[in-house]
Automatic annotation (TrEMBL):
Keywords from the UniProt entry: Glycosidase, Hydrolase, Membrane, Transmembrane, Transmembrane helix
PROSITE patterns: GLYCOSYL_HYDROL_F1_1, GLYCOSYL_HYDROL_F1_2
Protein family according to the UniProt entry: Belongs to the glycosyl hydrolase 1 family.
The name this protein goes by in its record: Lactase
Keyword Ribosomal protein carried by entry: no
Active site: E429
Keyword Transmembrane annotated: yes
Residues spanning the membrane: 563-584
């Protein structure tokens, strides 16, 4: 227990139990370390727990294996062929908004590299590819007043090329790049955006729906509402506004999604037979101290204010009672006449509920929650009343917020099952980043995918969670929003210093493609499985070079250059040595001649 620590007195505590020295009774309270040490003694060591133990088995037949990108992050061509400006074009060209002032003007140049992108998708062996459409490439001012056929041509060719490669397109209508013209009249804060989004969806469904069977209406509405309109670190970069703004934005995002879903359901479903949903993102949240009820309650609030904000109205009808009660009570306590959280009318609740064909879900990490009192702050953070941190034992990534916590995926999948009636789930993003020097041996990424995918397998086979698909983020290194190109999530490295912007495979390509080929994890106890023996796909890295008249890979050319340089050094060194040898020989001859002359003079 904590005790008198010599010169430090009672200021330093070494104990497993906290002792309250201000109380005459000196009560002892167990710290988390006491519970931990008890478990170590109980287990007599560190046995492998259920979270860490691998499960061997296969996913259901027809499982969707995919990888993902987003238009602004990879396409480039920011002013090509009549494309209009988006909020990210403006945001990225505003000084100090993006790390190192990076922007998506060129990005990965995917607008001009359909063939190259198809080639690396084939190398990855995915059967689906999730990408997004740039709203302003189709409708430059965001409205149906003018349709840009050149922009449509790009997506038309991309979809056809995917199908020709036996890869199904999974298309996102909105991945954050709102037309700037619409932002200038209020953007997602203006409820006319609902009709504008419906018009945009109508055009896309009508032109691509005969070939596209999986749709996402809006990607990560939480980030649109909070990161873009609450914290202001993403486009449109709005912060320090009244605490109602993120909730208004979220309200309109939900209604826009619902209208697009009903449009498809009423006008296109019978003929096109596709599936439409929204993609919701969320961390999993654990109590920082699992033995404190305050932390348990904080973890619940984090989940309900994250995934529940958008999932509850769509899957269960209306916002959760927790959100409605907390925000209303805090609003009234601050002297407001009504809740800062907008209300749905009974007609809107009915229209929104059930607007899904699957649960699109993005997940990366887990947090530890604890209560925080924000006083009278009328803001999302004050409403949630919780702070989050990470366990220092969790492995890091290239992103400060992303820790490797595979167990969280299984737990939040079970939460979705229990909270929302076990819907069909497609994981539409999951991945890990790196920073610093380029290293194609991304073993941390392979480790991440192995552990997370295995947790998904446990959720499916052991817990009965209806998981139908999995998508890695991302196909290639790209512009990671406000962090620029510094954080890299890709299976493929993109060499942006080369004008051809070649894609180069990292080791995780082979690892993920093997999982896909096996449709899971074959039991090694059964011996080598045929799915582990893959015939190599043709790689297209566009990085061959001419060297002394020969066409070689970059690695071969580098080896040849090093060998040539080494031979040149040897040759130069030999020439220098030979010259010195000749000089010394001549000098000795001259000295010998002088000695002979002196001897002759002495004789005479």
């Amino acid at each position: 227990m904590d005790s008198f620590e010599w010169l430090n007195g009672y200021t330093v505590g070494f104990g497993l139990y906290h002792v309250d020295f201000t109380d005459p009774n000196r009560p002892r309270t167990p710290k988390f370390s006491a519970h931990f040490y008890f478990q170590v003694m109980k287990d007599n060591g560190f046995p492998t727990n259920d979270d860490e133990r691998m499960l061997y088995g296969e996913f259901p037949q027809g499982f969707l294996w995919s990888t993902a990108t987003a238009s602004y992050q990879i396409e480039g061509g920011w002013r090509a062929d009549g494309k209009g400006l988006s909020i990210w074009d403006k945001f990225a060209h505003t000084p100090l908004r993006i790390f190192e002032n990076d922007n998506g003007d060129i990005a990965c140049d995917s607008y001009n590299k359909i063939d190259e992108d198809i080639a690396i998708l084939k190398q990855l062996r995915v059967n689906h590819y999730r990408f997004s459409i740039s709203w302003t490439r189709i409708l430059p001012d965001g409205t149906k007043n003018y349709i840009n056929e050149a922009g449509f041509s790009y997506y038309d060719r991309l979809v056809n090329a995917l199908l020709a490669a036996n890869i199904q397109p999974h298309v996102t209508l909105y991945h954050w790049d709102l037309p700037l013209a619409l932002q200038n009249v209020g953007g997602w804060e203006n409820d006319t955006i609902v009709e504008r989004f419906r018009d945009y969806a109508d055009i896309i469904f009508s032109r691509l729906g005969d070939r596209v069977k999986l749709w996402v209406t809006i990607n990560e509405p939480y980030n649109v509402a909070m990161v873009g309109h609450g914290y202001g670190v993403a486009a449109p970069g709005i912060s320090f506004r009244p605490g109602t703004l993120p909730y208004i934005v979220g309200h309109n995002l939900i209604k826009a999604h619902a209208e697009a879903w009903h449009l498809y359901n009423d006008k296109y479903r019978a003929k096109q037979n596709g599936k439409v949903s929204i993609t919701i993102n969320s961390d999993w949240s654990e109590p920082r101290n699992p033995y404190k009820q305050e932390d348990i309650d904080a973890a619940r609030r984090v989940i309900q204010f994250y995934i529940g904000w958008f999932a509850h109205p769509i899957f269960n009808g209306d916002y959760s009672e927790m959100m409605k009660t907390i925000i209303r009570e805090r609003s009234l306590a601050a002297g407001l006449t009504q809740s800062r959280l907008p209300e749905f009318t009974p007609e809107e609740i009915k229209r929104i509920k059930g607007t899904y064909d699957y649960f699109g879900f993005n997940h990366y990490t887990t947090v530890l929650a604890f209560p925080v009192e924000y006083g009278n702050l009328q803001h999302y953070d004050g409403d949630r009343g919780a702070g989050t941190t990470a366990d220092r034992a969790w492995l890091n990534s290239g992103s400060g917020w992303l820790k490797i916590t595979p167990f969280g995926l299984r737990r939040i999948l079970n939460f979705i099952k229990e909270e929302y009636g076990n819907p069909m789930i497609i994981i539409t993003e999951n991945g890990i980043s790196e920073r610093g020097p380029i290293d194609l041996k991304d073993s941390h990424r392979s480790y991440y995918y192995e552990k997370y995918i295995n947790q998904m397998l446990k959720a499916n086979l052991l817990d009965g969670v209806d998981v139908r698909g999995y998508t890695t983020w991302s196909l290639m290194d790209n512009l990671e929003w406000a962090t620029g190109f510094a954080e890299r999530f890709g299976h493929f490295y993109v060499n942006r210093s080369d004008p051809k912007v070649p894609r180069v495979a990292k080791e995780s390509v082979s690892f993920y493609s093997t999982i896909i080929n096996c449709n899971g994890f074959p039991d090694p106890a059964s011996g080598p499985h045929d799915c582990m023996k893959q015939e190599p796909e043709e790689t297209v890295n566009d990085s061959s070079v001419n060297f002394l008249g020969l066409k070689l890979s970059a690695e071969e050319a580098e080896t040849g250059l090093n060998a040539t340089f080494a031979l040149l050094i040897i040759a130069v060194t030999g020439a220098i040595c030979l010259s010195i040898g000749c000089f010394l020989t001549k000098r000795r001859k001259k000295e010998t001649k002088k000695v002979d002359n002196v001897e002759l003079e002495r004789k005479f």
